[in-house]
Design brief:
Shape: globular
Oligomer: single chain
Length: 402
């Protein structure tokens, strides 16, 4: 439990429910694993030998590879850009490493000092095996020390997936450290936890609470889970091979899985203040892991926010549609927009609302939830989804309250 009770442990009932589902889904998935092993044992245990890191993992063309030791833990990061510029801290997701931001580092470094971190347990950072070393309070304190060690008092945090969850928590726990938060393919932690039952990998999230077996399962069929998550990369792609190299040992999975073994048991205290700094939520319109409904609900925890949708992207919009993503990112972080009508940026929101309501109309089961959010944010003015003039409600998805 983090100090000041901003990040708290979930209720006893939630803990019991998670452990119960862990047993149920754990037994089910292990039975499936056993059946696959019996049917084709050679394919099940196939694991290509990978002793040499691909050049892209050690290449310095994207920036300098650096290390810092915090509380006895070594962190690896890649830094690019002038030290006189504002700092942008990039936090990757799962299963990934600093290389996740290969398309963003060159672009951002023209305007910022960029640090792409290997989270603890990932990449070339240390990989302690103990689950307790991945408690949220320890992770956040290490991120706090990292930012301070870089010689700044605050920075912009851009996080994807797990990195986004950590960014949300950092903005709540240490608001003085975060100038702006960009959460990519990642709803607010409270929304993430409450919407897990609708997630396509719900069973897997419960299964990974077990010890040892999830690590073994991740290695089967030559680290097939990497290909599953990184479907946007073709077979034998250089970057796909780099990810498989980074996750080719059992100990390479213990740390990453320990994040899930801890994050499912925490939430932001309901009496905490909403996040005061600007928040940009970016998601792909084809993401199967994160629902659009969850992104919209996450704005309840923000005073100032923008919601941006990357067309044609799934869970990795910063890689799959990196040009469109970079344009959104730079526009949010660098370019000054004209503000009209009491601080509401209408023009930037028009495309979002069109796609938002388009998504709602084609996905009926989420319509009521999005409508409830619209109703709430307009203080009851909007009671139903209109069939015409949808753009007149653009401001509710791009709020810059003073």
């Amino acid at each position: 439990m983090a100090k000041d009770l901003r990040i708290v442990t979930v209720s006893l009932w939630e803990i019991i429910k998670i452990h119960s589902l862990t047993f149920v889904f754990g037994v089910w998935i292990m039975c499936k694993m056993s059946a696959k092993w019996v049917w084709d044992p050679k394919s099940f245990f196939t694991l290509q030998q990978r002793d040499t890191p691909p050049a892209c993992l050690v290449d310095s063309s994207l920036g300098q590879h650096k290390y810092v030791k915090l509380k006895g833990v070594k962190f690896h990061y890649v830094e690019c850009g002038s030290r006189d510029l504002p700092l942008v801290l990039l936090l990757h997701g799962f299963p990934d490493c600093w290389l996740s931001w290969r398309h963003q580092i060159p672009v951002l470094s023209q305007h910022f000092r960029v640090v792409a971190l290997d989270l603890k347990g990932f990449g070339d950072s240390d990989k302690p095996s103990s689950r307790k070393t991945y408690r949220i309070d320890m992770i956040l304190e290490e991120l706090q020390q990292l930012i301070i060690s870089l010689g700044v008092s605050s920075c912009t945090v851009v996080g994807h997936d797990i990195g986004g969850l950590l960014g949300w928590c950092l903005a709540h726990q240490f608001p003085e450290l975060v100038d702006k938060l960009v959460a990519v393919s990642c709803p607010h932690p409270n929304v993430y936890r409450t919407s897990l039952h609708t997630s396509s990998n719900y069973r897997w999230l419960n299964f990974v609470q077990l010890p040892y077996f999830p690590e073994v399962d991740a290695l089967r069929e030559d680290v097939k889970i990497i290909s599953k998550y990184h479907k946007h990369l073709p077979p034998h792609d250089t970057y796909l091979e780099a990810y498989k190299y980074a996750f080719c040992r059992k100990e390479d999975w213990t740390g990453p899985l320990n994040y899930f073994r801890n994050l499912l048991f925490i939430e932001v205290a309901e009496n905490s203040r909403t996040i005061q700094v600007p928040v940009v939520l970016i998601t792909g319109d084809r993401d199967k892991f994160i629902k659009l409904e969850s992104i919209v609900k996450s704005t309840d925890y923000c005073e100032k926010f923008q919601v941006k949708i990357v067309d044609g992207a799934r869970h990795f919009p910063h890689q799959e549609r990196h040009q469109q993503f970079n344009e959104i990112l730079l526009k949010s972080l660098v370019k000054k927009k004209s503000v009209e009508d009491g601080g509401l940026e209408r023009s930037a929101s028009k495309g979002i609302v069109n796609r938002m309501f388009g998504a709602v109309s084609s996905t009926v089961k989420y319509g009521n939830s999005v409508l409830d959010t619209v109703h709430k944010k307009t203080n009851g003015v909007v009671g139903s989804i209109p069939t015409i003039n949808l753009l007149s409600y653009a401001n509710i998805y791009d709020r810059t309250d003073s």
